[in-house]
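Bumping with the actual sequence this time:
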Amino acid sequence: MIKGLVIRSTGSWYEVLSLDEERHVWQCRLKGVFKIKGLKTSNPIAVGDKVFFEIEDENQNHGTIYKIEQRVNYVIRKSVHKTAHGHILAANVDQAVIIVTVSLPRTSLGFLDRFLVSTESFRIPTVIVFNKIDLLDEDEKDYVADLASLYEPMGYRCLFTSAETGLNIEEFRDLLKEKISLISGHSGVGKSSLVNKIAPHLDLKTTEISTFANKGVHTTTFSTMFELDDNSFIIDTPGIKELGLIDIEKEELGHFFPEMREKLGECRYHNCLHLNEPACAIKKAVQDGEIAESRYASYLSMIEGDDNRR
């Protein structure tokens, strides 16, 4: 069997890059039904998965996937089609990059915090890129600076960019070097424009050419992996409206907020959910201004399971 890397999934067919000298892209189907133990997903195979396949029809460029290599990590959200199922956005990534804008469109802090919790659950390093800085007035620029001062102490690098003016485009390029990076965000935040600035050959704005398959692809309906240069890959995800959490228990949610994690042992009760329990160190930290009220509000909305709030 040939080892390959899944670079695109359309649900029934998978584009698989062979990890041999040929580096050829095959159109593959799945042999049988794959189930990941303890995890219900609407997509058994995700972009970034390493698989083993056999060539079935060389003339038709078809192959069959027989085995999936164990994942190092993955980023998952609730499926929009199947209740109680998850949809894996990408697997085996080195880092995640979340593109946000404070207007045109506005990225809610609730959405941002859900994304960070999802990546934190697998300890995936995450960078927050505030894009379209050139469109902001002074008050909005101050607001973005305040957000950066909130998230950077938690360990999230923040970068300010503008595809229009070229602000920090080289820093954005360096950020992606020699890594497999998941790039995500709402539709319209400028993911494609930023990537096109550093890799114009990809033409992600119209997504007419795949650098691997050298063939037409649809607009971002499905996650797709692209090669920026040797050893640098991005996984471009569809614009996400909502990000419902899955596979995270209420009792462990606080562990995925870095500023809460360091205080969890200070609560009176070991199973404290930080809601109405007495002597809760997290609520006290919020009252004392050590934990931002916006972050605590995001935590509460996740506890309540309200994916559309904030």
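The tokens above came from a reply further down the thread. Residues 206-220 have pLDDT under 50 and may be disordered.
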